[in-house]
C-alpha cells in the first residue's frame, strides 16, 4: 500500500471527504436538536410535577396515602418531604441539562431545585411546594437519557455503509477510463495490438483516447513499414550474395584470400538473417504449451558447441520446464542467446566457457546462458537491448548487426516475459530469459485472461 492503485486512492479520498463532512455535520445537527429535546424533557418534568401537586392538593386527605402509593407503583413517582439536611448531588454539568433546568425553572419558578441524587438515591429529583411545605418529586426512570445515543449510532452506521458504497461506485466510474487506458498501454508495451479505446465520456478522456488510438495506429504503420523495408533490403541482398559465393567457388584463388572472402560473405549472410528475423511479424498471444527444456537442448545441439575443442560446455537443464508460447520464436531466441555467447563470450585465450542452465523458479521458467568473456558494463544493458546497438567489444571484427539481443527481448515481451543481462561471478556475462511457467498458478490465470 505504499503506492496504492488509482482506484484505492480515489476511493480513500472520497471516503475521507465523506467522513470529514459527517464529523463536521453531526455536532451541528446535535446542537440544533438540543433545544427542542430540552424543551420536550422539561415539559415532561413540569407535567409530572404539576400533576403530582394537583393530585395531592385536590385529593381526599383520607385517600392521599393510597394516591401516593399508586403513583410510586404505577408511574415510578414518589413524593418525600424536603429536609434542609438532605444530601443533594446536582445534575451533571452538560449543555442539554442546563437547558432543561432553565426551562423547568421558567415554568415552576426560579426556586425549583433539580438533583441527580438525594440521600444516596439516584434518579431525577425535582422540588416543589404546597402551602409553604417543600417536597421532592422523585422520578425513578431516567427521563434525561433517551434513545438518542442508539439512534445516532444506528444512523451513523447506515450512513457510513451507504457512503462507502457510493464512494466505491464513484471511484470505479471515475477510474474506469484510466484503467482501460492502462490496460491498453500494457498490451502495447508487451508488443501486442490493443483494441481501440471508446470515443465517449468527458472531453478530457475523449481527447486522451483519440490521441492514444492515433498513436497505436501510427506505431502499427511504422512497424509495418519497417518490416517491409528490412525484408525488402534483406531479400534484395540475398541474390548478389549468392552470386558472389558462386563466383568465389569457381575462381581459382589462394586459400587465404578465399577464406577471407568467405568470412565476409558469412558475415553478410548473418546480418541478412538477423534483418529477416527482426522483420518477421510475431503473434502477440502465445497459446500452446512448449517444452522449454527440450528446446534448450536442441538449440545447444544446433550450435555444435559440444564438438568445439576450444569450448567448455556446462549444461544443466531441468526436465519438464514448460511455458506457454510459440516454439519457433522461442527456438530463435535461444539460438540468438547461444550465438551471442559464441561470438562475444570467448576469453583472451580464445577459450569459450559456456554454461546453459534451465530451471523453474516459483511461477517462472528461467533459461540462463553465461560465458566468461569481457562482459558489458551495467549502464550498457538497456542500450544493448535496443535494435542496431552493439557493445564496444563487439564493434571490432565480430559479425552481426546489433539485432540479436533486441530480437530476444522482443520475443520475451511477446511471451509476457523479460530478458535480463548481468555480470557473471568471476567475469563474463549472464543472459537470463524469464518467462511465465506453464502449469503454475500464474500461467493458469494467464490462460483464463486470454
Structure description:
The protein starts with 5 loop residues before the first helix and ends with a helix. It has three domains: 144 residues, Sensor histidine kinase RisS, periplasmic domain (Beta-Lactamase); 92 residues, Helix Hairpins (Orthogonal Bundle); 166 residues, Histidine kinase-like ATPase, C-terminal domain (Heat Shock Protein 90, 2-Layer Sandwich), CATH 3.30.565.10. Helix 1 packs parallel to helix 3, helix 5 runs antiparallel to helix 6 and helix 7 packs across helix 8. It contains eleven helices and twelve strands. It is 55% helix and 17% strand. The chain has 450 residues and is of the alpha+beta class.
Q: Can you summarize this structure?
A:
This protein is an alpha+beta fold.
